[in-house]
Write a structure and sequence with these properties.
Blueprint (H helix, E strand, L loop, with lengths): L3 E4 L4 H12 L4 E5 L7 H8 L8 E5 L5 H11 L3 E4 L6 H6 L1 H21 L4 E7 L23 H20 L3 E6 L2 E2 L8 H10 L3 E5 L5 E2 L2 E2 H12 L23 E6 L5 E2 H12 L4 E5 L14 H7 L7 H15 L3
Parallel strand pairs: 1-2, 1-4, 2-3, 4-5, 5-6, 6-11, 7-10, 8-13
Antiparallel strand pairs: 9-12
Helix pairs in contact: 1-8, 3-5, 5-6, 7-9, 9-11
Length: about 325
Amino acid sequence: MKNIIVTGSAGFIGSYVVLRLLEKGIKVYGLDNHNHYYDPQLKEARLKRFIDHKNYTHYRTDLSDMTMLNNIFDAAKPWGVVNLAAQAGVRYSIENPKAYIDSNIIGFGNILECCKIHNVKHLVYASSSSVYGSNEKMPFSVHDNVDHPISMYAATKKANELMAHSYSSLFNIPTTGLRFFTVYGPWGRPDMALFKFTNAILEGNQIDVYNHGNHLRDFTYIDDIVEGLIRVLEKPAKPNPAWDGVNPDPGSSKSPWKVYNIGNNSPVKLSDFIETIEKTLEIKAKQNFLPLQEGDVPNTYADVEDLVKEFDYKPSTPINDGIEKFIIWYRKYYEV
């Protein structure tokens, strides 16, 4: 791998990917629109970890700006692209669907077009466990159909997979989608459960516990996500010679296109997750029990068999260890 473009480089996952690529001696061109969906100061703090690195170049721009995007590709001449820029969040997609269309559909379309124009050797992009929607068969497998999303966010991620497939098919661009399962860890997103719960408990505030704490989440530690992503990036997607149009496999293709789950393969009940936070903080949470939120799936559970088989890799960080590392970071960052 030579030069790599990372979009969403001031984001949670993106900033870790940039650091990892720089450690490998790769030149990285990062771009991020620094929007105000959550605290922009946190994004700036993430960026400070590498913005002055000799092999890093940063652009403050939006994927919807095709002219700027094309100029960045011209300057970078990338071997590969890691697209992590997106409007995140299930619930916000109910309030503001246009933000998801602008970023996740139009922006991703521009990325694909630039990959075509500039002969990119591999595009790796963030999908989501949310694409499984109404599916109830557990664990979720990439070889199952995902045609029933229950949020606009999930629909845009499913659309990304379909858009990528069309470019792989038409222009022979290797594309790989990674379905992330509830990523957590230091430098995480303030709109995610671990961040919100930790903040509220430390301040003595009540936490909202949806589905009365009964749903399951396949919480996946950030280091495990990044390790899986880098391994996938290094091996461009290839056509599946056994792919059969009579019995089509939803997880592969006769084109150089693939999707993988990256999850801990060990779902945790929300009530147990909260209990682990309480034990680590040594503070009891004040809990407000509520029904399942609109747009949320009851349970997530990743089948990672393809990841293990093709990359000899499986996420493995125990939830206790991951939460402890997050809380150590949180106390230091916020001087609690």
